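Sequence in, structure out.
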Amino acid sequence: MLSVADSGAAVYPQSAEQREGRPCVDCHEAISRSFAVTRMADGASSTDFLAEWGKKGRPDWCASCHAPSGGRGLVCADCHGTGPHPYPKLQAPGICARCHDAPGESTVRRFLEGPAARRGEDCLNCHLPDTAPGADHTFQGPTVPGFLDGVATVRVFLRAEEFGGTTAVLRLGHRAGHALPGGTTGRSVWLLVRGLDADGEEAWTETVRFGWEHHPDRGWLDRTLPPGRPAVIEVPELRRGGAVGLRAELWYRFQPGPFFQPDPRAVRLDQVQIDL
């Protein structure tokens, strides 16, 4: 599999020991082993990265976050530095912002806007929870099964209109510390709303996408769900096509593209169904 190192991309000069995570692994074998299975350790050789990187023309600057040392992903020195041991404690979210506020990212900036930051929490409260300091580096994220359980909700309210008809008011909330989805331009959250006929069959369908959105004249725009406050979507004329019920679903997708394009890793975050 091609990695950034294989491409001739610009990398930070480091010794072979540093690129391999040594001498850290000699004393911190368990920590090194736990980090080795994370997405960060695979940051420049994952299928997702290679696909998006190829579409963008394989620019060298991607390596500054995905593989600063030129390997298949991050190694110890990329975050902890190469100074004398013991290294100082890393300060989150500042250390995270070096990459997670890079072009196409706003994760830390949006975190600082939200209630988690005001409560004094940081990135590790969710992404490296329930471990003694330095005891484990198995960073958690959306690709870990169960990580997204209960993270977002959709609620539906009906409003009768003055001149007839009914509008659905959908309230989307989430408990992530940053905007949802976090990460880069490929990920998205979708609201799927279906009108159902008397047989439970689909009468009509509407979708709304949340995530990074590209405009030819304005570039990339951040259309993610903000932290700490709900988003409200209204869907009018619910009874069209003979609909007598409504189903709303909230989905997290990893692959870019239209909602109905298959994504085997997609996760349904929540759903609700009501009669009209």
